[in-house]
Amino acid sequence: MSPGAVLEVHGVSKDFGALQALSDVSFAVRPGEVFSIIGPNGAGKSTLFNVIAGLHAPSRGRVVFRGEETTGLPPERVNRRGLAKTFQITNLFPEISVYENVRVAAQSRAGISGRVASLWRLPDVDPEVMDLLRAFDLQARRDELAENLSHGEQRYLEICLALATRPTLLLLDEPTAGMTPGETQAATALIRSIAADRGLTLLLIEHDMSVVMGISDRVAVLHFGEKIAEGTPDEIRRDPAVIDAYLGGADD
Amino acid sequence: MSNRTLAGAAVALAALAAVPALPFMSKYYLLLAFDALLFGAIAMSLDLLIGYTGLVSFGHAAFFGLGAYATAVCLERKIVSLWICLAAAVVVVGLYALLVSYFATARRGIYFALLTLIFAEVVYTFFRYTQTFGGSDGIQGVPAAELAPGVALDTPLKNYYLVLVFLALAWLTCRTLVGSHFGRVLVAIRENEDRARFLGYNVTRYKMGVCLVSALLTGVAGALYPGRSGFATPDLMLWTVSGEFIIMVMIGGLGTLVGPVIGGVFFVVLQEKVSSYVDWYFIVIGLVLVLIVLFMPKGLLGFRRVQGFAQWRSGQ
Question: From the CA of B160, how many Å to the nearest CA of chain A?
Answer without folding.
Answer: 28
